[in-house]
Amino acid sequence: MAVSGQRLLAIAGVALAVAACEPRVALEAPKEPITINLNIKIEQEVRIKVERDLEELFKTDKKIF
User: Fold this and answer.
1) For residue 50, what are the CA distances in angstroms to 1, 29, 41, 44, 55?
2) Which keywords appear in this protein's UniProt record, sorted alphabetically (predicted)?
3) Rounded to two decimals, what is the model's pTM?
């Protein structure tokens, strides 16, 4: 019976160790508000329009250069 008791004790110890290592997931709200920075440059669209206008100007008026 001593061997059986030791086995039972070992199994209980392993079960306790496995239960202690169980991961815990906690969901918490952030302490600071979430900020989204929406500073977007619209420079590309303007540049394309200016380049198209310049190309048209160069095609129509060859005396510029």
Assistant:
1) 93, 48, 16, 10, 9
2) Lipoprotein
3) 0.29
